[in-house]
Amino acid sequence: MLGLINDCAEQLVIDKFGLDAWHAIKESAGCKVKDYGFEQHGAYPDSSTVDIVVAAADALNVTVDDVLELFGQYFIEYTISKGYDNLLRCQGSTLRLWLSNLNAMHDHLQSSLPAGNFPVFWCENCMDHEGSIILHYYSVRGALLGSVVVGIVKEVAHLYFDVEVRMDRLAVQGEGGNKCTTWRITAVDPEKKHKLTMKSSADADAIIIQETMQRRAQSKSNQGDKSLRSSLTSLSDIQCPFSQSYMRGSPDSVNTLESASLSNSFCLSEHKMDNPGVEDEYLENKMMRRHASAENLKALAQNGDSKGLKIGDYVHGLPSSKVCSVFPYHVMVNERFKIVQMGNALPDMLMRDYEDLIGLSVDKVLRFSKPVLAGFHWPTLQRLADQKFFLVPVPFVDPKTGAKIEATDVKFKGNIIQIAEGGNVMFVLSPDAQNISELTQMGLTMSDLPLHSFQRDVVFLGEHIASEVRTAHKLDRLSKRLENEKNLSNTLLNSMLPPSVAESLRAGKTVEPQLYENVTLFFSDVVGFTTICDAVEPWDVIDMLNQLYTIMDHLASRFNLYKVETIGDAYMCCSGLPTPDENHAQNIANFALAVSECVRLVESPADGSPLQLRIGIHTGHCMGGVVGTLTPHYCLFGDMVNTTSRHESTSLNGKIQCSSVLYEHLAEYSADSSGPQYKFTPRGYVEMKGKGRCFTYWLDSGTKHNDAVSPKKMKELRKEVKGVLSKKKWKKRKYFNHVRRKSIGGFDEATLSFPDDSSVLTGISLSDELSYPGRRISTGEESMMDSSRGDLTSGISDDDIFSGFDISTHSDTKRTIWAEIRWEPELSRSDLVSAIYGLLSSLLWKCADDAMEEIPENRKQLDSELLHYVDRISSLYEAHPFHSWDHACQVTLSAMFLVNEYHEFGGAKGLVDKNPFLRFITVFAALIHDVKHLGLPNAQLEKDKHCLSIIFQGSYLERQSIQVGLGIFIEDFPELSTAILKMCPEFLHLVTSAVLATDVANQNIQQNIQDRFERVMQGSSNDVTELEKTQSVVEQILLLADVGHCSQGYSNFLKWNECFFFECLKNYKAGHGFDPRDGWYQGQIGFLQSYILPLTERCSALVPRCELTKGTKHVLHLWKQHGQEWTKNLVDQSIKAESAESEKKMQEEDGYEEFLAFLAMPSNYSSTTHGIVGKPPDRARHKTGL
User: Fold this and answer.
1) In sequence order, which residues have a C-beta less than 8 Å from that of residue 330 and are 6 or more positions away?
2) Helix runs in 497-524, H state only
3) How crowded is residue 19: how many other Cβ atoms within 10 Å of its Cβ?
4) How many CB atoms within 10 Å of residue 458?
């Protein structure tokens, strides 16, 4: 038994009944495996599983069958949790097909699980009970796990087909000579019985097609058909592969045999072995069909109309009806490439009627995608005779609705077979799906794939290998991450405890206290710390201490000290333990002098003055040991610890008080050196609590003979520490829900927060402008934040990228930011390139970290490629007024804002997507969505018969942007594209769908996008895949960003409205499109009402804080009030521009005529009239260069 069976049983008991119940069952079953210790791919004795099941039945006080049935139901949930949901969902479109396809799945699982003995299933329609099916189950273990099958079937029927079933057991394997266990499966609700054997959608269409085919068969039958019927009738007594009983046939059963049994080679082969007489008849009929008249076939091939191939005619031994069933996606054409026959399933894939396709030229139905061909030509096809080729449907106009229909997700692959001498050729096709995701996009399941093409094997193997590879990669990443976490924990542990002590504790040893004879201690505290705490907020105190302890930790490491602990503002460190050091006194003295100097770099948050410390140092002996078990702590004990503390508490501001013992030690060291090392000032006797009167000294400074803290060296230390502080990013800690600021200009207590995980733009400040290093992103002059200027986010760390506002109490603040967000107009192209690159780079590596992907070692090189890619894309944008690089940057910024809003607040309806690369994909798609745009609509390109309308099939400009943007990305930046595709395999598909979504004039695309979004919003997790959810979210956010100016502030709307107006006017003057001066005002109202408002209302759940609908209504309201006047001003500007242009043109023409007259004058042209002889008039000088 595979280990995953036992592991599933363990998970079932723990999830349903608790860990204690599992321990009791394990003990009863004698199982010695540790919790969660079963190896899923390992083999275990069947007896171990039986013991666990029996023990579970006893412990839970139920029957063994009940336990096994419950296990079967839970097994589906278990496999889904392992990532096989898509594979299970696509096994079949009906319960019967789903069960029949299990054998194929088991065959492929056998390759990766060789230790498993998988069962065999076989399904058939039940003749005695209409709408029921018969399930035969065979296992090498007999009926041992039969109840598990019952649980699995019931759970699958409920989960994937929404039907409750009843299973009546008809036979048991091993009883009464039965070779298999058999159940009759019936729907509990009779109205849902069709879900067992028929697809849940288009049932009526399927019935109509079947009746039509039957009528054709009856009206066009011939002798060959009768011969086949006779042969099929003789085969009607076919045998079940597991039992000795026969299925006595009837005409209906013969029909069933036609459609199912002949396609089941296993059934035929076993039938022929057990029935040699029938086999002889079968072979005889086969030979008769093989020797069919060549003349009939030739005549058949020469007939090109829809009557050319009858249902009863034969093609190489098979009737054409059987050809259409066995090859459901084939196309047969005559020598003139007229379609004479098609597979049964192909018209549905093409979304056309069978009768409409027969007689059409095949190039009006399909076109080659690979290799690229100009059309269907016999010389070209002869070269493809031994090759695979790929076809896609040709868009067509629905004769009923007049709409243009394009099956964008459908693609085929196949080869060519010559049928007869007359010239008929069969294109044997199959859907080109490499994995479950592509199969689902075509609306197909495994059962829809033809048996002859091995496409099922391809999809099975691709999905299985992908799952195994994902698991292997995930385990590898987890192991590496575990190693990193282990190193981090070791580093943390070693920073809290001495390394030798930490190693002993990790090994489970007891750490005995140890006496250290020569140790010097350092104590310090901050002067006026209590006053500072009373005057400022807690996070200011925390920031101050962080800066202070950063300095002290850096210096402690430099002077080889051991930091014992910090308590509040008190800092304690020592030298001489846990590693003895003969220079312990000098180390502490040098550290104290360095700290006393460098601490002035830290300012008090109360008054801005430099901090001062009280410091006490002393030397002696002490004990060191570990105290506590919950949080072990390394502590020092002894009289010297108390003495050092007293020296610190009795010290003065900014002073270092040194004990007489330590003074003698340092003086002795100075005597042995080349000169005095330190400068001391005797303080005299000081009364110390518990110590009486003690004589102490002030340690003033180091001398020039002290290489560690000489005046010159101290300057270098101060500069070094200042550099350390400058590299740190200090920010206000988010320990509280809001930030309080004093009222400025009537704007009191703005409520703000800066979530670390929602940002993507390093160093952004959301006050009056969004700042990027060296650039600014304006949020508008009318923003509410203008009334409260100030650096709200000074010193934001590298992790803060696009912090948002807390709208719990001030919702207008957030709306205002979205309403006015835009780049500063004076930014150059290179400025915007750098800013967009910063966005994408920050997003890419943050997304990679969220996905637990290992950051590539060549990250710097990849960042460099990303920068060059953004620069390359920016140079490919045309200088149109609207579809320009500036507008692409605006859309990118809006997409950045929206996708972060969605990422943080999109879970209002549980919609938060699990794809960690969602944000990067959205911003990337926004960057390239209009690259190489011609400034003309797609409809105008089609009207002008532009070359793009010939190259691409619909959405010409969007497809060009995809081809250019992704083509450059893959071909010219291979390392970057390879790294991204490795981390996010679905990247290209999602970017493509997002850019296509911006074709707002394509009704089919927009309807598909809307349908997908509604399915995502309304469907359960069982109805919607994660890929569909990601695709829908990216599409909707990019749609919102592309028309973001319509829901942002009115000034932003007017800016881009003017750009679009003059772009349309420019096209009109060039002879393309309409004159925007006619009906522009009403046209904008119609666009806002009919498209923008429905879009914002539909997507309100994605970004609820932006209040897009409210912003759109505000823009619409102002446009209705002032739009006519604005449009009139635009028209007046255009008229003035035309007049100025005409006048300039006339002047140039006049000057040119004058110049021509000058050239015609005699050579003795007098200089008294026009100056120098031979010099043309000034107005004509420009024309001389034409």
Assistant:
1) 323, 324, 341, 342, 343, 346, 414, 426, 427, 428, 429
2) 499-506
3) 12
4) 17
pLDDT value for 383:
59
Cα(384)–Cα(135) distance, rounded to whole angstroms?
44
Q: Which of 340, 304, 338, 299 is nearest to 323 (CA)?
A: 340
Round to whole Å and give the CA distance between 600 and 718. 9
- For 733-757, write each residue's pLDDT tens digit: 433 333 333 333 333 333 323 333 3
Q: Which amino acid is at 946?
A: H
Q: Which two tokens stand for residue 1066?
A: 């420019």
Q: Are 1031 and 925 in contact (CB under 8 A)?
A: no
User: What are the structure tokens assigned to 179, written together?
Assistant: 């070779």
Q: What span, in angstroms and rounded, lies between the C-alpha atoms of 830 and 230?
A: 80
Q: What is the spatial distance between Cα 413 and Cα 366, in angstroms, rounded to a whole number? A: 12
The whole-model pTM stands at: 0.39
Helix (H) or strand (E) holding 27: helix 19-29
Percent with pLDDT over 90 in the chain? 13
At residue 216 the predicted structure's pLDDT band, cuts being 50, 70 and 90, is low
- The set of residues, in sequence order, having a beta carbon less than 8 Å from that of 698 and lying 6+ positions away, is 655, 656, 657, 658, 680, 681, 682, 683
Q: How far apart are CA 577 and CA 584, in angstroms?
A: 9
Enter the DSSP assignment of 903: H
Q: How far apart are CA 896 and CA 469, in angstroms?
A: 32
Q: Token pair 């054997």 is at which residue?
A: 197
**Is residue 917 helix, strand or coil?**
coil
Indicate the burial class of 259 (C-beta count within 10 angstroms; 0-12, 13-18, 19 or more): middle
Question: How far is 61 from 24, CA to CA, in rounded Å?
Answer: 13
Residue 926 to residue 893: CA distance in whole angstroms: 9
Q: What is the DSSP letter of 1174?
A: T
Peptide bond into 773 cis (omega under 30): no
Rg, C-alpha atoms of the chain: 41
Tell me the C-alpha to C-alpha distance, in Å, between residue 306 and each of 65, 295, 301, 319, 577.
58, 20, 12, 16, 99
Q: Token pair for residue 884?
A: 């320009």
| pLDDT of 616 over the 90 cut | yes
State the Cα–Cα distance between residues 499 and 501, nearest whole angstrom. 5
Cis peptide before 1094 (omega within 30 of 0): no
Query: Is pLDDT above 70 for 138?
Result: yes
- pLDDT confidence of residue 221: 47
Residue positions counted in the chain: 1186
Tokens standing for residue 836: 């967009």
Q: What angle do CA 336, 342, 346 make, to 5 degrees?
A: 125
Is the C-alpha dihedral spanning 316, 318, 320, 324 positive or negative?
negative
| Contact criterion met (CB below 8 Å) for 892 and 839 | yes
Which token pair is 976? 């970057």
Q: Where are the beta strands (DSSP E) in 327-468?
A: 331-333, 339-342, 366-370, 389-393, 396-397, 404-405, 412-418, 425-431
Question: pLDDT of 544-554, one tens digit each?
Answer: 899 899 999 99
Contact call for residues 359 and 306 (beta carbons, < 8 A): yes
CA separation for the pair 98, 717 (Å, rounded): 75
DSSP single-letter state for residue 128: S
835/772 Cα distance (integer angstroms): 7
Which regions of 172-274 does DSSP assign to beta strands (E)?
A: 181-187, 238-239, 246-247
Closest among 849, 863, 854, 974 to 919, alpha carbons compared = 849
- Which of 594-603, 1035-1044, 1045-1054, 1160-1169 bottoms out in mean pLDDT, i.e. has the lowest? 1160-1169
In the chain, the largest separation of any two C-alpha atoms, in whole Å, equals 132
- In angstroms, the CA 891 to CA 905 distance is 21
Contact 612, 599 (CB under 8 A): yes
Q: For the segment 572-599, what is each residue's pLDDT rounded down to a tens digit?
A: 999 988 888 888 999 999 999 999 989 9
Strand partners for 187: 165
